């Protein structure tokens, strides 16, 4: 599987598993990565926001990168967000030296005008290396910077090394259509669009022209099934599968605590040992655990993977 | 039905119907208000964000207020957000003089610290009148100001005229539980909590202690059914009903374009004549209309109210 | 004096004087407007942020507009900021019907991308009327929206009715130079640039290409002198005058409390009767009054207008 | 000189000098640090925003810290801002192990409510070590988080290891008075308050109760003189000195480009070899260099240190 402008399928965003004492749980990481590959994922993304990247010491980030790349055959994309270009340069070089397929970055929080955004990405691409393949993360809800369709097009034209858009603007459906229209008439070069935003619109995004998903939902195996149904044109079946999972998808997509939900479900599924987060993250309350349990029981009636 | 700290049930947020030429469509407004009452709504809220309040001339706002109050027997709550206290004073006086049950207001956008927030509400309550019953809108995603549990408690203690919390923080489940815990141990006085946020968590919020909902979902009749099932302890049936609607609820809850979706569905249901919005709002794209239609077809299999 | 793209000189931003009981003090308003004209102001701007416009009832705003226009021979510019286009349409029509020379507006707070900004101004200009002369206020510190040089140029090209830029970005010197360069090579049409930002950079802005100032400093007579010295090429004398006032200019330019300082100084100068503000504004503390008094004593050594 | 709650005088914020090729210029750094000490500074702060900390690789930060501490006898405070607690823990440990007197940190950008702020500082203090002396940076204009007087008091009470407030809120004079009043009546423990904000209010802050300054103005020697005049009660002389420098202080205090101005002036003073910044920073335009030159010529008439 290639990580390029033609990439398709599912790239799960991997959380970083911790042991109860807060150290990185490499055994769970191995199990998780193996599960992604076995589930049919086209690639995997590590050290994003969901991976608690900002809570890791740089040695830990490097160790995780090397471990994952050594473990799996599918392309590994590494998040390289950092407060400055020096940090991004370092992270990108380490990732690519370790064998990553590419890196991921989103715009810095303070960027507002189109002029500022284009200048920032010029510096950022210089920092990660002009030939390093990268994913543009468009996630205004978390990153605060808003990217319009014209500015995404301008970034893509200025930087041929960008091979993929991680589309998680909200609302985002018209944006996907607008980009695909520009490509259809030839005024914008081709690139892959994978969607995220917790997967909240996966049932509809495919028909707008996306190539798959890059999100951290705790049932990545369902994401692969969903993509295959869509690619096969099985629209109703795809919706049925999606609708069964939507109550849980919606629950996982809560800002801030969503990661605790995901880790908890992954733990219940036996994929990681502990649902511990590093501070300032916290675990689920007893009431939340009950809610997740109830949603899983309901889901299990339609998808046996949710059975305890 | 009383609008006080013991209020329960469903208070739909009413959109303002317009004709194709942009003028207020009072006939559709009548039909909509009649439908709310006939559906079993406990009250109705007008001139909120969803009601395009900021796009109305003051004469129009007054006319709408008088029309709705004259039309219905259920309590009418009127949004009084304005850039300054003078505007809020005027709007609140007009609403109460016209016979409103109370008013609704959320914190100004620039407020940050607890000190600023408490001072602002002291001024705001003085402006609307110390005895005017009001709803506190907690909606950080749209209003940007964040209200912690301690500051909500402080506002409630400082202002006995606040009878209701419109809870639409996201995530919001733990916040509801925390407020109810304070009330259970007697350190916080009682008040009603209705939830909004497009209804995205209505299946779970009731069991956290809410008293109903105040949201603009285009099936307010379903919201009443849902509340009744929950109040009757029919948890599974309530979830089944909710799950059937969730794909559409999710589609309506998209920031910005959500109102266009709601007006479109209300028009398809025959409740308003046109789905026109005032600028800068715009109507749905053909692709979005197709998606809504498809979601309604799927919904109709489980809830006949969605049939064309 | 004409209010058009060739406008020059000083347009003071007028505060709205209140009596101790909070009502509008029309006698002080007359005195203030007379003083502006007698001081050599080229025009006057009313109902801006400094004019506490958001704290006025609409009847008060109309009364102030009519009073000022009837009182003075110089062009009157009226702020028309409002939460929606309906409000802006109404305010602009009332102002122009009353005989205003033009209106002033800045971008709405939520605007981010170039695409959003251009679309918003298209709607706003349609609302105020395509032929109504207007001032573009560029004030990111207060309005949060940032306007780059390319987007200002695009607004100016799209809307020939915009005759003036109220430049108060910070930093702003390079921005003025960049706009003037575009005009020098003929890729941007001519328009007037008056600077504000409390006057903090008036000593330097003129030489970057500005045509005067539009700010609320409590010595508008000094602003006129400064402009005349600059226009006469008396750079050192202009700096000497500016430097004498800078400690007070700096004190007045404090966000939030700056208006209280200005009203206090205007009261001490005998130009308004009371330094009262409407809520949430508050008066100066005793310590601040002492500081202002001390700064005035020091200023009086160099400019006798500051004498008690 | 001790770095504790009784600290007084001037702690310059040191820029990081670079050579033309972008590498750290350790010789200039030595010269600069020597100059601070020779000028009578009570301490020095490195690796703050002004020190371009986010643009340094971690090895560079460590090398700078060790170099400065080895070079000087005065207390060295080290900025430890980082995106997560893991990074802060590492930076603080490295700084203290190298012999720093303490560390500096400001609140993370996303913090809003009092509850969030207190929880964040509890985690942050745990990360840097409960006994590590630290400076609380209150700089809303750059950090966006606003700290009210009650929340600063709460932080100070919760964390005895905080010995100093770097006060750079704007406006900030009333805040200083309010904190000193709380201390005067014994409801708040003592701590040092040094002011920053580019030094824009240094003439007035001392009389509100501050103990000196911690800012990066390119004439730290003047800051020491100013403090001595104030401490000696020479108010008029202090103001005369301040007023002479205010036009340049104001020019340096421009957001974003202020650092370029400072490096340029330090270079003209012979204190650093090059005025190079790392990206995204850029050097001054020719017009700006002319303006700085002109302001220095004017300043030199009153303070010979500004002579070329």
From TrEMBL, chains A, B, C, D:
Q: CDD domains of this UniProt entry?
A: DHDPS-like
Q: What is this protein called?
A: Dihydrodipicolinate synthase family protein
| SUPFAM superfamilies named in the record | Aldolase (SSF51569)
Q: Does the keyword Lyase apply?
A: yes
Q: Which family does it belong to?
A: Belongs to the DapA family.
Residues annotated as binding pyruvate: 214
GO MF terms listed in the record are: 4-hydroxy-tetrahydrodipicolinate synthase activity
**Among its keywords, does the record have Cell division?**
no
Record keywords: Lyase
In terms of InterPro entries, this protein maps to: Aldolase_TIM, DapA-like
Q: Which GO terms describe its cellular component?
A: cytosol
Superkingdom of the organism of origin = Bacteria
